[in-house]
Give the backbone structure.
Amino acid sequence: MALQRLRRLERVREVAKQTAAMQAAQAEGTLGQLTRLRDRTRAMAASYSPAPQMEGGDLRRMQAFVEGIGRLTGQTEQDIGVARSRADALRGDLAVAERRLTMASERAAACRKALLQEKPADAPARRRNWHDT
């Protein structure tokens, strides 16, 4: 009975570990996407430079556009900070889930080993012929 309970606990811990791994992978993917977005917006902003023939209105529009890209880059930087914190926390959750699974597996293995080492109690002799008594 104890071994069955430990096996169930081991399965629950395995599912928890898989869930934590999936969430951590998603968080890492989000962090990677945000980092690529930040790099692209920085490159886009850097590629805009005023042409010598540009005048007043064109320069203002281009400046406003570049400032808008700069704001997007700043917001993406903040989002990256949040995503990094979330990814770190989920990596920590994954480590905890792995430790819990390891502990449950070790307890189940110890219980199996103890059950195998137990000497079965002597069973009372059975009567072979119940009808001739």
